[in-house]
Amino acid sequence: MNKNDLLFYNEYEKFYKMAEKSAVFEEFCRTACGEDLSQDGFGDMRQIDRILNLLSREKKSEILDVGCGNGKLLGYIKSKREVNIHGFDFSENAIEHARKNVEGNFRVCTVDEADYPESIFDMVISMDSIYFAKDMGEFAGRVKKWLKTGGVFFIGYTEGDIVPFGNGAENSLAARALRGCGIKYDIEDITRETYELLRRKRECAEALRGDFEAEGDMEWYHMIMGQTECAASGYEDFAGKMARFIFIGRK
Ligand SMILES: C[S@@+](CC[C@H](N)C(=O)[O-])C[C@H]1O[C@@H](n2cnc3c(N)ncnc32)[C@H](O)[C@@H]1O
């Protein structure tokens, strides 16, 4: 397999190189999302609090982050709960930084290649990464195998960006993938709070425009403005072309 053929491979290598050294991007993540976890997507601290609420406060949990980037999300969870952390990502730069940023078990591999022993995880997190599976149903089946009985599959999922806007959460590719392999799930529609997050991202990027310019990182300012263009007008308009759901699946 030639990695250069994979969707956004070169873009993510470049992104994680920038994320490791850019003080402005760090400040942007902190102001827009509540904490610098090198967010590239639709996740913020409100969503991560939902993950924390699902993790035991008493016993140690084994958790896996799919598309873990530079490991900062896992590092944050580790600072709040008793966990052993595992993560994989196809970006070599991301995993090199993850290994420096936090103690855990990190691998360079694609979503389609990833494999782990049966019944070892209490939670598998996929924050904006399930879209990269060639076959979401097959991938959900593998995740089910890795989860202990009662384990949680947490999915942050946006429609209208990488996957097309559809006909509601129950008809989404993610819901069908979960049903297909017999994982029961609850859904939370967080489209409204995502609209607010994207507007905040625009405002924060705009406020930091001069700093992006001074750092010579205007490419990333433009990337953020492009990514959040969908939230430039009113909520009705946004909700007509984009939706975000959290799926909490249980084995
Ligand atoms: C939208 S970002 C989300 C990153 C992070 N989870 C977050 O919420 O900010 C997608 C992540 O998945 C990784 N990724 C993309 N395609 C992949 C693939 N085919 N296999 C493994 N990782 C992939 C990217 O490098 C990136 O870290």
What does this 3D model show about the protein?
By secondary structure, the protein is an alpha/beta fold. The chain has a domain at 43-190 and 235-250: Vaccinia Virus protein VP39 (Rossmann fold). 44% of the residues lie in helices and 20% in strands. It is built from eleven helices and seven strands. The chain has helices at 9-21, 23-33, 45-53, 72-80, 92-101, 136-146, 173-180, 191-207, 209-215, 218-227, 235-239; strands at residues 61-66, 83-89, 105-108, 121-127, 147-159, 184-189, 243-250. The chain has a seven-stranded mixed β-sheet, with helices on both faces. Helix 6 links the parallel strand 4 (121-127) and strand 5. It is globular and about 50 Å long. Bound molecules: S-adenosylmethionine. The site of S-adenosylmethionine (SAM) has 18 residues, from loops.
Topology:
Blueprint: H1 9-21, H2 23-33, H3 45-53, E1 61-66, H4 72-80, E2 83-89, H5 92-101, E3 105-108, E4 121-127, H6 136-146, E5 147-159, H7 173-180, E6 184-189, H8 191-207, H9 209-215, H10 218-227, H11 235-239, E7 243-250
Parallel strand pairs: 1-2, 1-4, 2-3, 4-5
Antiparallel strand pairs: 5-7, 6-7
Q: Tally of extended strands?
A: 7
User: Order of strands in the sheet with the most strands?
Assistant: 3-2-1-4-5-7-6
| Content of β-strand | 15-25%
Please report the distance between the alpha carbons of the first and last residues. 32 Å
CATH architecture of the domain at 43-190 and 235-250: 3-Layer(aba) Sandwich
Helix residue percentage: 40-55%
Unreliable runs, pLDDT <50, ≥5 residues? Answer: none
- Which ligands appear in the coordinates? S-adenosylmethionine
Provide the CATH superfamily of the domain at 43-190 and 235-250: Vaccinia Virus protein VP39
Dominant shape: globular
Radius of gyration: 17 Å
The biggest sheet amounts to: 7 strands, mixed
What is the helix/strand order?
HHHEHEHEEHEHEHHHHE
Tell me, rounded to a whole number, the average pLDDT: 96
> What is the CATH topology of the domain at 43-190 and 235-250?
Rossmann fold
Total helices: the number is: 11
Structural class: alpha/beta
